[in-house]
Amino acid sequence: MTYGVAFTALADPTRRAVFERLGSGPKPVAEIARGMAVSRPAVSQHLKVLKAAGLVSDHPEGTRRIYTIDPQGLRALRDWLDRFWDEALENFRVEAEAKTEKDRS
Amino acid sequence: MTYGVAFTALADPTRRAVFERLGSGPKPVAEIARGMAVSRPAVSQHLKVLKAAGLVSDHPEGTRRIYTIDPQGLRALRDWLDRFWDEALENFRVEAEAKTEKDRS
DNA sequence: ACTTACAGTTAGATATGACTTACGGAGTTG
DNA sequence: CAACTCCGTAAGTCATATCTAACTGTAAGT
């Protein structure tokens, strides 16, 4: 059930952009917001959502807060995904077979 | 970039419920909507979004349309996820190391 | 042909969510 | 302690998405 917040969090393009910026390593808020289309407070709000989803974690460092990608949220997504992956392939295979069978008749 | 629509599609709880109902195999719309909190037209709208995201595919069967999970959309999500997975673990490891290092001092 | 079953579409109301501006708090430096 | 930096929060506005209700279209049965 916890994968729900993760999907919701990563649905917004701006929020995905925030998350993806952490792909190159931990960063303070100001550096994340640098050059983005939205204001810094907006980035803070997005980080709050990402944190609630377990996608990022933070720790203070002087007057700044350093944000890092958290495996926890990604793990939830990955587990959910795996539940459907094999099944999706199986469905696809059966579908394709039924189609070629039909073409033959 | 195509993983964006997939995330957006799976963000809505109702839409995820629709998608997950296809986990037990292909189904017509009426059967998907059976016992759900929303109306059948709502389910149709959700299926439309899921189809646009490449998460489901459909084919007519008499007066009914059978929907099936499509691996395509899941593939996009999986690829995106893998780009961050290893990195997240590495960041987490470094973070944990820095923490224990700090505790020792 | 008429009726019934099943599903997609449209229009409109409502709700949810993202953004900016302004402010407050916590830490650091002089 | 005063000024400065960095960041989170609150209030308010605006846009977008979801829902229901009514309608249309299509296929099958009588």
From TrEMBL, chains A, B:
<dbReference type="InterPro" id="IPR011991">
    <property type="entry name" value="ArsR-like_HTH"/>
</dbReference>
<feature type="domain" description="HTH arsR-type">
    <location>
        <begin position="1"/>
        <end position="89"/>
    </location>
</feature>
<dbReference type="InterPro" id="IPR036390">
    <property type="entry name" value="WH_DNA-bd_sf"/>
</dbReference>
<keyword id="KW-0804">Transcription</keyword>
<dbReference type="InterPro" id="IPR001845">
    <property type="entry name" value="HTH_ArsR_DNA-bd_dom"/>
</dbReference>
<dbReference type="InterPro" id="IPR051081">
    <property type="entry name" value="HTH_MetalResp_TranReg"/>
</dbReference>
<dbReference type="InterPro" id="IPR036388">
    <property type="entry name" value="WH-like_DNA-bd_sf"/>
</dbReference>
<dbReference type="Pfam" id="PF12840">
    <property type="entry name" value="HTH_20"/>
</dbReference>
<keyword id="KW-0805">Transcription regulation</keyword>
<protein>
    <submittedName>
        <fullName>Metalloregulator ArsR/SmtB family transcription factor</fullName>
    </submittedName>
</protein>
<keyword id="KW-0238">DNA-binding</keyword>
